[in-house]
Amino acid sequence: MSLKIDDIAHNLKVLKRIEETPQATSFVLEIPENLKEKFKYKPGQFVSFFMDVKGEQISRSYSLSSAPEVDEDFQVTVKRVEGGKGSNFLCDHIQAGDTLKTAPPSGHFFKSMDSTKHFVLFGGGSGITPLFSILKHVLKTKPDARVSLVYANRSEDQIIYKKELQQWATDHTSRLQIHHLLSQPSAAWELPTSKITSAWIGSFLGEIDQGSTEFYICGPEGYMELCKNALLESSVAKERVHQESFATSIPKSAQPATDIDGKTLIGKSPSEEADTYKVSVTLQGVTKEFNVKKDETILEALIEAGENPPYSCMDGACMACMGKVESGLVMQEDPGILTQENIDVGECLTCQSKPRAQNSKITYDIF
Q: How many CA atoms lie within 13 A of 258 on its CB side?
């Protein structure tokens, strides 16, 4: 089986486009009644758009800025990237009334825990998009929790949702604190500001009870690396730091090891040659056994069998379809967005993973 775009995506009408900044545009999409269940979403999730750009078929993932308990609109925000085929096509050409071929929401960025009393959000540029969704969700549904947003931009005209953020801060003065960090503020900017640095983050953390705090980071790769390293150097527990990224490539130094043929092997069983493999898959607490062909991915086998596993981009560029190899072995032609850290704990992208050992056990229930 080879999945086609029409098998995983739906044409959604653009109801409205909103010019957030000179470089960022939001798109409000209409969800038909028969797709409302399929397009239910959680804060911090994303959708993937499948586009024809000058004859080239591309897919790109963009975060939802709306929050399910707060907003009636289903809204995605896109920031123009220099040379970016997807973002420039969307910002330049898509208008109200057009349709976008869209895969249902996916992603595991936000982890909601009752014990969390403080959510610290580090956003850089368009990285604010999933964080704004999380911010609204927390303030609406968790009355005992508070939010601190650290939002870095070059100048104030690049602050996405500037008015909305100010309104949320005004309406929740005791529960929402916003730090705008501008590297090149104009002379008219009156609020305190600073560049984002490890020293600034270290000083900021001195006022925080880390025991009941979760940290979320989204933005350019360099920004996220700086924030993550500063948090870890300040003794923030690694499991309390959550990072979102849609990078389609990873630094060479972070790429996982491969076998002699350059394939990425995940799991600890020896490789077995077969035309068909028996694979046990656990999804939402239910375990079933499937026969998966040698050249078929686990995700393709599940969909062909009528199951409903999570997935989105189908390119290995997001983690929507992530599973964990509990026993056995799978092979990926390319590691995609996985790092060696993912490989070491047995995490795989089921849209890319093909079984290479009999009786392998895969679970999706890892979040």
A: 14
Q: Is the pTM of this model over 0.70?
A: yes
Q: Which stretches of the chain score pLDDT less than 50?
A: 248-254
**Residue 226's domain spans which residues?**
118-244
- DSSP symbol at 236: -
- The pLDDT value recorded for residue 222 is 85
CATH number at residue 17: 2.40.30.10
User: Is residue 347 within 8 Å of 335, Cβ to Cβ?
Assistant: no
- 3 within a domain of the structure (yes/no): no
Q: Give 254's contacts (C-beta < 8 A, 6+ positions apart).
A: 339, 340
Long-range contact pairs involving 237-243 (C-beta distance under 8 Å, separation at least 24) = 237/210, 240/210, 240/213, 240/214, 240/215, 241/215, 241/217, 242/109, 242/110, 242/111, 242/214, 242/215, 242/216, 242/217, 243/216, 243/217, 243/218
Domain membership of residue 111 (yes or no) is no
| CB-based contact 326:346 (threshold 8 Å) | yes
> How many angstroms separate the CA atoms of 344 and 325, rounded?
10
